[in-house]
Structure formats: structure tokens, C-alpha cells
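Supplementary Methods. Inverse-folding protocol.

Structures were first reduced to a C-alpha cell string of length 376. This string, shown here, constituted the complete conditioning input.
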């Protein structure tokens, strides 16, 4: 049996699987930090890595719920008696309940729980002390990996052989230009989309993949939410529960060292990105529309900030029916929002393939709160 071991751990703005984008490049303002285990790999391992703009991150889906007796799946003696611990078919959210084969999807529930993600490499950090010991880490953005994920490997992204359609004869970056490109169905019976670009000839994806990835939910900020973000810029910690210094991945105290105004702009962007492409099953979509998802009740959020987690301005159980708010965790923030199906007048214009997926729902941000925890 092949043995693998983590070489580091990733900390990210996502504490929960639900709400994490399906691919990191759909949320380019998301952030994370990989800290390497010095006893497993040397700092020489990242020599010259800073010259690459993007990296592939190989990791373990450590929060999968189907890993307890997975060994039965691959044990020849137990195959007949053992229960297979990964599904053969998956229902992608963009198909609204229809199933396809597991290898036709990016689901984390796979025969081997190993994932890879293409991320933007913002910075390589190496810290050395007087004893000669070093700690080293990577600052990443545009990622789709949950906080605490074990990292198995890092590979540089090289467009010459990683990008289908790369044209080395072009000037500038050499990347294939997108002007004039389009994606059209090859034929309605096969539901396959052909990428029409002279530099990507022969590249195709199922039409439901292209259709789903092109959709963005309409995300609107109400006054209270906008005011909270504005207070992060102007209060400088003078107002309770509105200090930008409480954030881990954005602002002056983060490794990115953003100014308050930059941090707020990035936060506004990442909130739109995450809720605009939120990926959920048909069952989870129905729950969200009824306001039955509260991130602060998750054990992972409690474990991160302590058991007594509260949020400033969170709507309690008494208001569930009159204010069916969902909440989503992001960095040290709780985003309070409602989500609803599109207006009935628009139903005729919606994509039938995504019916029930929530891909074209309407999202309204009601308020934003700092997660507060009282240390035990």
C-alpha cells in the first residue's frame, strides 16, 4: 500500500465545507496560508517557487464523512461483504438532482479522498530565528480548500503544458486570447459544449458544466451590511464588534498587510463571489431558502474560536419564522442573508437543466457580524 504523509497544513477563510466554492478561481479574493512541517520538508523545498504566479495544491479531503471503513472497499477479501464507501454516481448541483458518474465530477467523495486546486501564489514567507531554525509558508488566494486541510504536495503551474490552447508564439504572456471565443452546444441531443477558440480546438465539456459555471446569483447588500463594512474602515476598533483588527486574513494585521479600505473592498468582493456561486445540493438549497442554515452552530466554528461562540446582531430562534436568515462564516465574520427563488416572471427565462439547483436564486445580505468568543 502506498504511504503518503502531510507536508503541511492549510489555514483558510473557510471553516465549513458548505459555502466553500466548487473551484477557487470562482472566488479570486479568497485567501489561505500553507504552513509547512519543518520536520517533514526543508525550506530548500520552496527554493525559486516565488517566481511562479500559480501553484497546484494537492491535499486530503479530511472532512469526508465516508472514510471510517474505506479500507473494506479495497480489501479483496472483504469486497463481497464490505460496503463500498464512495458513490459511483453524483448529483451535481447545476443539474438539479440528475446524477452522473463520480469521475465526471469534482466531488470530494472519491475512491481516494485526494484533491487538487489551482491557486494564486501571493507570497513565499521564510522566517528564521537565531538558532537557525526556519518556518516557511505560502500565502495563497483564489482557493477552495477548507481550514485545517492536510497538504500532500505543491506543484508549480506552467501554462506551456498545463493550459490547453497555450500559444507560445504570442507576445506578452503567451496565453491564448479569449477575445472572440465562445462556448456553444455541439448538438442538443448530446448536451456537449465545444469551446470555440482557434487556440483551444478540440476542447469540450458537458453543456451543464459550462452553463453552471457561467451563472452568478444576484447578491445585494442592505444598508446595515454596508454600514458594518464602512465602520471597519473608519472606527479603527473604537466601535464594539467592528474592528478590522479582529480579522485573520484581511486587513493590517493579516500577512497580506492590507490597508483598511483595501481589506473592505476585498471582503465585499469575496462575499459576492462566495454567495454568488454557492454550491449546494437540491436538499440543501431548499433548507437555505427556508433560512435553516446557521454557520455559527457548527462544531467546527466553535472549535476554532472556543465553545461559547456568539455573534453581534445574530437573529435568534425566536425570529426564525419572521426573519428566516441563513448565516455563512467567512474569516472571522458571520454573514447574515436571505436567499430566495427567482421571481415568477423570470421562470420562463431560466435554464431547465439547473432547475432546483438554486444557481439563479436571489441573495440579500442583511447584516455582517464579528464572531465573538469568550475564552474558557
Amino acid at each position: 500500500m502506498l504511504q503518503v504523509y502531510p507536508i503541511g497544513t492549510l489555514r483558510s477563510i473557510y471553516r465549513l465545507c458548505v459555502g466553500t466554492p466548487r473551484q477557487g478561481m470562482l472566488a479570486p479574493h479568497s485567501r489561505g496560508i500553507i504552513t509547512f512541517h519543518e520536520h517533514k520538508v526543508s525550506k530548500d523545498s520552496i527554493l525559486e517557487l516565488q517566481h511562479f504566479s500559480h501553484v497546484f495544491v494537492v491535499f486530503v479531503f479530511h472532512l469526508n464523512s465516508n472514510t471510517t471503513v474505506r479500507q473494506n472497499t479495497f480489501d479483496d477479501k472483504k469486497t463481497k461483504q464490505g460496503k463500498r464507501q464512495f458513490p459511483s454516481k453524483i448529483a451535481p448541483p447545476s443539474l438539479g438532482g440528475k446524477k452522473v458518474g463520480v469521475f465526471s465530477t469534482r466531488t470530494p467523495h472519491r475512491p481516494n479522498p485526494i484533491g487538487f486546486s489551482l491557486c494564486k501564489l501571493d507570497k513565499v514567507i521564510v522566517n528564521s530565528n537565531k538558532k537557525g531554525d526556519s518556518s516557511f509558508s505560502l500565502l495563497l488566494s483564489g482557493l477552495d480548500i477548507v481550514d485545517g486541510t492536510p497538504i500532500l504536495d505543491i506543484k508549480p503551474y506552467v501554462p506551456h503544458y498545463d493550459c490547453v490552447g497555450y500559444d507560445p508564439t504570442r507576445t506578452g504572456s503567451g496565453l491564448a486570447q479569449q477575445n472572440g471565443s465562445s462556448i456553444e452546444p455541439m448538438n442538443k441531443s448530446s448536451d456537449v459544449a465545444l469551446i470555440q477558440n482557434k487556440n483551444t480546438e478540440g476542447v469540450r465539456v458537458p453543456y451543464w458544466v459550462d452553463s453552471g459555471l457561467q451563472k452568478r446569483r444576484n447578491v445585494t447588500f442592505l444598508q446595515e451590511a454596508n454600514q458594518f463594512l464602512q465602520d471597519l474602515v473608519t472606527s479603527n476598533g473604537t466601535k464594539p464588534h467592528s474592528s478590522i483588527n479582529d480579522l485573520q486574513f484581511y486587513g493590517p494585521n493579516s500577512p497580506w498587510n492590507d490597508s483598511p479600505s483595501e481589506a473592505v473592498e476585498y471582503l465585499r468582493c469575496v462575499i459576492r463571489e462566495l454567495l454568488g456561486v454557492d454550491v449546494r445540493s437540491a436538499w440543501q438549497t431548499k433548507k437555505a431558502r427556508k433560512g435553516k442554515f446557521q454557520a455559527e452552530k457548527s462544531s467546527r466554528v466553535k472549535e476554532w474560536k472556543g465553545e461559547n461562540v456568539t455573534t453581534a446582531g445574530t437573529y435568534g430562534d425566536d425570529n426564525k419564522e419572521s426573519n428566516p436568515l441563513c448565516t455563512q462564516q467567512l474569516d472571522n465574520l458571520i454573514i447574515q442573508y436571505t436567499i430566495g427563488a427567482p421571481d415568477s416572471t423570470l421562470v420562463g427565462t431560466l435554464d431547465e437543466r439547473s432547475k432546483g439547483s438554486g444557481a439563479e436564486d436571489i441573495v440579500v445580505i442583511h447584516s455582517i457580524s464579528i464572531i465573538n468568543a469568550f475564552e474558557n
